[in-house]
Amino acid sequence: MFVATAQDGNEQVYPIAFKYGELENNLSWEWFLDCLKGSLGHIDDLVFISNRHASIEAGISKVFPYATHTIYCWHFYENIKKRYHRKDVAVIMDKAARAYTKL
Hints:
InterPro entries: MULE_transposase_dom (IPR018289). It holds the Pfam family MULE. The chain is α+β, with helices and mostly antiparallel strands. The protein has two domains: 2-71, no CATH class; 73-103, no CATH class. The protein is built from four helices and four strands. The protein has helices spanning 26-40, 54-63, 73-84, 89-98, and strands at residues 2-7, 13-19, 47-50, 68-71. The chain has a two-stranded antiparallel ribbon. Strands 3-4 form a two-stranded parallel sheet. Strand 1 (2-7) and strand 2 form a beta hairpin. Helix 1 packs across helix 2 (54-63) and helix 3 packs antiparallel against helix 4. The protein is globular, with a radius of gyration of 16 Å.
C-alpha cells in the first residue's frame, strides 16, 4: 500500500492519498506519484519526507523534479546507528534534528 500524508500549519497530520500496488519498485512508485500529482496539481515549495528507498527517490525526482526530498530523521538515525554501532548518537541526532536554521 502506498500512502501520502500532509501536515498543516497547526501541525495536524492527515491522509491525502492511498493506493494499493503489488511491488515497491520504481514503476510502482512513479505510478503512485503520478496519481498524487494529478490530485494535487502544482504546489510551490512541496516537500517530501520519506525513508531512503531508492524507488521513492527516483520517483520523486522524475515526477516532482522541483520538490524537496528529505529523509525522516528516525531512518537517518537508524542508518547511523547501524554503520557506527553507537547508541549515543541519538542525543546528537536529536539536537541536530531540532536545530533551526533559516535558509
